[in-house]
Amino acid sequence: MLAEALEHLVRGIVDSPEDVKVSAKNNRRGETLEVRVHQDDLGRVIGRQGRTARALRTVVAALADGEPVRVDVVDTDRRR
Prior knowledge:
Blueprint: H1 2-11, E1 21-27, E2 30-36, H2 42-46, H3 51-64, E3 69-74
């Protein structure tokens, strides 16, 4: 449910909503939601000084009802 809610919020922010992908991964620290967007929309999702990303994390944390959730905005242009 959290991944769908986050995806809906991010689709409303970006210019290319068809490129938004949110994947959920569970680990020992809780759930991690990875957000992938078109390279041109990365700045919109992060926002000035990270304000938009911080706001998205706040909303997801409120929806998680106390469960540990991490939201990562993944830069798809960088290679590991």
